[in-house]
Design brief:
It is a single chain. The protein is mainly alpha-helical. The chain has one domain. The protein is built from 12 helices and no strands. α1 crosses α7, α2 crosses α7 and α9 packs parallel to α12. The longest helix has 33 residues. The protein is globular and about 55 Å long. The N terminus is likely disordered.
């Protein structure tokens, strides 16, 4: 009598872990992934010299009342990174599932794991990559402070607070690209539609708010609309707006998951 053994498919968490590790291995062992990371590092070092440590910006911060180096330094660091990283994410995180759908790879992958595992694993992978970039940006900024001989406990505190807030505000942008990547077939399309959606949504909400003030509450649906408020906060007060990116990320991930489940592969 022949016994047939049926292998059980891996759990969602196990499949997600495998996909994330494979994506990380591919990024750090293939030339293209290393070139992307190296390009960011070179570009950030350029920004450190001419933007974060810009004498003009530091003088402006001093005029505005930031008399201590940590306040001046990390006010510049946070403001530059706050706008740079979301823009980069529109390109870096644009290819989460779209190209695989076009090539037919997703259909093959679903033979071994669920669509949820693929969708959330690719999102987590992009979060890890962006967090590596944030970590590099933070450490290199502190390194510049050491080079200039003006590092303090306050500087380190400012660095950690800034990095933690950057880690939060980048989430909805990566989630937005996960949604668009589940809808379209190419990273270029995802990036293009992200720009269109953000511009149209912010324009419509601004117009509605002009004629009907309560409509400004809709700003919570648009990633990055809290940046102007966040730039005016300092220290732990910055975390009072942490609910905004977390809410946006949750809504976008739920939407993307539903699209991924219904979208033809």
């Amino acid at each position: 009598m022949t016994t047939i053994s049926l292998q059980q498919p891996p759990s969602t968490l196990s499949a997600m872990k495998t996909i994330v590790l494979l994506e990380l291995e591919r990024t750090f062992t293939h030339k293209q992934g290393l070139i992307y990371l190296l390009t960011f590092m070179i570009f950030w070092m350029f920004l450190l010299k001419y933007a974060v440590f810009s004498q003009t910006l530091m003088v402006m911060n001093q005029v505005l009342g930031a008399d201590e180096l940590p306040s001046k330094l990390f006010a510049n660091f946070f403001k530059v990174a706050m706008y740079l990283l979301p823009v980069l994410s529109l390109f870096i995180a644009a290819n989460q599932t779209g190209s695989d759908r076009e090539r037919g790879t997703l259909r093959f992958m679903t033979m071994y794991c669920s669509r949820d595992a693929i969708f959330f694993a690719r999102f987590i992978f992009q979060v890890i990559i962006h967090y590596i970039l944030i970590l590099f940006a933070t450490i290199s900024t502190l390194g510049f402070g050491v080079f200039k001989g003006e590092l303090s406990f306050d500087a380190t505190s400012h660095a950690l607070i800034s990095a933690a807030n950057l880690a939060l505000i980048i989430l909805p942008f990566i989630a937005l690209m996960a949604v668009l990547s589940a809808l379209v077939k190419s990273p270029r399309q995802a990036t293009f539609y992200a720009g269109i959606i953000w511009s149209v949504a912010s324009g419509i909400i601004s117009l509605l708010s002009h004629y009907f003030a309560p409509a400004s509450a809709l700003n919570i649906l648009v990633p990055g609309m809290q940046f102007s408020l966040l730039g005016d906060l300092n220290g732990s007060a910055m975390f009072t707006l942490a609910y905004v990116p977390l809410f946006q990320c949750t809504v976008l991930l739920l939407l993307g998951r539903e699209i991924m489940r219904r979208k033809s592969l």
